[in-house]
Amino acid sequence: MNEILWVVFPYICLTVFVVGHFWRYRYDKFGWTTRSSQLYEDRLLRWGSPLFHFGILAVFLGHVMGLGIPKSWTEAVGISEGLYHFLAVSIGAIAGFGTVVGLAILIYRRRTVGPVFSATTRMDKVMYLFLATVIVLGLVNTVVANIFGHYDYRDGVSVWFRGIFRFDLHPELMAEAPLSFQLHGLAAIALFALWPFTRLVHVFSAPVGYLTRPYIVYRSRDDRIASHSPRRGWEDDR
Amino acid sequence: MRVMAQMAMVMNLDKCIGCHTCSVTCKQAWTNRSGTEYVWFNNVETRPGQGYPRTYEDQETWKGGWQLNRRGRLTLKGGGRLRKLLTIFSNPKMPSIQDYYEPWTYDYSTLTDAPAQEHTPVARPKSLISGQDMKVTWSANWDDDLGGSAATAERDPILKKVGDKVRFEFEQTFMFYLPRICEHCLNPSCAASCPSGAIYKRSEDGIVLVDQDRCRGWRMCISGCPYKKVYFNHRTGKAEKCTFCFPRVEVGLPTVCSETCVGRLRYIGLVLYDADKVLEAASTTDEQGLYEAQREVFLDPSDPAVRREAERAGIPHDWVEAAQRSPVYALINRYKVALPLHPEYRTMPMVWYIPPLSPVVDVIKETGEDPEDRGNLFAAIDALRIPIEYLAELFTAGDVAPVDLVLRKLAAMRSYMRDINLGRDPDPTIPQAVGMSEEELYDMFRLLALAKYDERYVIPPAHAEQAHSLEELATECSLDYEGGPGMGGSGPFGEGSGGTTPIAVENFHMLQDRQTADTAAAPAGKGARVNLLNWDGRGAPSGLFPPKPDDSESEADQR
Ligand code: SF4
Ligand code: SF4
């Protein structure tokens, strides 16, 4: 059972994540967008969207720290257990709280503003459900598990997580973790499988290249995407 | 010198009758789809008026275009790159649908489907955004012909600049129409604002396009364009803008708006310019110097040095020749009667306008004097402060002198030609008074008043060696592509996902749908529209009118 939940399931989902993105980018560049609904409404969006997005960016960095960097490394540079704990809980709680508030505003907006609601696809709704579950459970982990319980995820979940990339998973590490951590993990893994089929793909087009490219882009007529699409390989006449 | 070619347009405002044919045909060709109901690549505004979207010219609010920073360097008015990325989650300057208008249709079916009842059934307006009943309060042309202007015209940002003394009273009104499309700027701030780099300027003809496969819906172009000519398709989540009808222009046909213009007032031609001088010209310190600065960026295509450089830059020989015959170049640089719209936005716009003399003529007519007499016209140009200052705010950043001179030239043409038409001796002092020769004035008359089709449009086709990638010239059947004509409707991830539909295929579907659909305004999909894109202006495009009952075929043949 543990093997299925913490080895097979994650790998299946991650495969879907990678292959799914490849497939979507290959066949649906036109659908690859944020699907912004700012045109319909921007009073709520003005607060909700930055709160959520900046919050989730901070949360992401927190996960890179917490999951990606082994405990021994932080200790080697002299960050004590107590200090790390304090930083993780405080910054994590603030970022998580911002994210949850932002998400709540956005979901409220989506449900109550007529045009926004009618522009919501079924995939969006599924995605919101998983995203909200993952985020709320995550916040519960940060606050409840750190303040009331004493589970050090850096000896458990994090080690299991890094195992993914070394193809050396220890499912028992996850099975020993508190239930809320397990649920958070499972929901997140499922979200990764959904990812390529939702608007979340826009994360991968974060336009950092804008900072360095020249302002005006020139392109020749030849390399524009012709509205006449290329033939299959052996017929390609170009 | 780095020579580049630009496809450009001039509109002669005196001839615009405000019929909106251009807007409607453009819409039929390009934006008659759900998601673009409110999108008018071409719109015609009544001035004074707020324009579309409302008060878009107020850049202190909308922050479109460029400005000079404290060190005199050109920067985006809406903030630099970092600021753009930091506000990407909610663009603070993006107009909302209320600044355009909420598009609607009518519930027509109740008119025919309602059961027998005492009162006549009513077709209620239904929002095309939410599908709910709505109250219609504004549209793309709500203040057409100054309708309701007593209440709303004081919000016109240009009227505000002209001075607070202006009271919008009936006796003082003047009015003209301003048709607008994307300016296909030399220094496009929409492209500069796009975080994904999806908006590009075509190096061959300068047409500014949005790559639909690269646009990610960050919405920065919409606030970046000072003319508000990039629109957000709310169904596909992508930006769309005027394409200068590139599939037509590539084969030498004028744009749909020009082809169908009732007043025949649009001119299309090439302009050669020096790409190395664009930045410097756009950074001219004095706003009122921008008109001259932009004029100086253009190169004289009959100058041998320019022709040599053009050849070196790979511009085909027939293009250089077309540039010499270009009506646009002639109106801008030879007769100097065309002026740019809002040069102070520093985007170097490439759709120029001949300001209208009609506000002046109208006033003279009202006094009962002769509106074609030079003395009367010149005196009136001097006296009519408000219309002329208003025009200057539109076309020369408030500098009255160039507008004044253009109007004098138009007035001179009017009275000089009247003498000829009445069989009197032409008066050579008239052209002299505006610094032109008699021959020049006559040539200008020919271009402006006779406006022959092949003199209005000098459009060299794209080159055969490039034709491979041009869909309209494809030798194979364009419907025969992977996925086939089974396209149309929505993809799995919302409207429009699942790959772009080739234009020819979309045409095929729209015709088919239109012929077989039972509702006219169903926002059912991108299929339901009539194609005017490759209509040549003769006869009626197929699908525009429902088929006639029986002998429609033979009747059409006789015609
Ligand atoms: S007018 Fe056209 S080219 Fe110029 S900034 Fe606006 S959208 Fe871009
Ligand atoms: S079709 Fe021509 S005359 Fe009519 S509104 Fe448009 S530009 Fe003016």
Give a quick set of tags describing it.
heterodimer, A: 238 residues, mainly alpha, Fumarate Reductase Cytochrome B subunit, 9 helices, 1% strand, B: alpha+beta, two-stranded antiparallel sheet, 25 helices, binds iron/sulfur cluster, heme (chain A), electron transport (chain A), Heme-iron_electron_transfer (chain A), oxidoreductase (chain A)
- Uncertain regions spanning at least 5 consecutive residues of chain B: 466-491, 518-528, 552-559
- How is the biggest beta sheet of chain B arranged? 5 strands, mixed
Looking at the structure, the CATH topology of chain A is Fumarate Reductase Cytochrome B subunit
Radius of gyration of chain A from the CA trace?
21 Å
Task: Sketch the major β-sheet of chain A.
Answer: none
Shape of chain B: globular
Helical fraction of chain A: 55-70%
Structural class of chain A: mainly alpha
Fraction of residues in helix of chain B: 25-40%
> What's the end-to-end separation of chain A, in Å?
54 Å
Quaternary:
heterodimer
Widest sheet: strand ordering of chain B = 13-12-1-15-14
**Count the strands of chain B?**
15
Number of helices of chain A: 9
Ligands in the model, by name, code or SMILES, are: iron/sulfur cluster
| SS summary, helix count of chain B | 25
Protein name (chain A): Nitrate reductase gamma subunit
InterPro entries (chain A): Heme-iron_electron_transfer (IPR051936), NarG-like_domain (IPR023234), NarG-like_sf (IPR036197), Nitrate_red_gam (IPR003816)
Keywords (chain A): Cell membrane, Electron transport, Heme, Iron, Membrane, Metal-binding, Nitrate assimilation, Oxidoreductase, Transmembrane, Transmembrane helix, Transport
Membrane topology (chain A): Multi-pass membrane protein
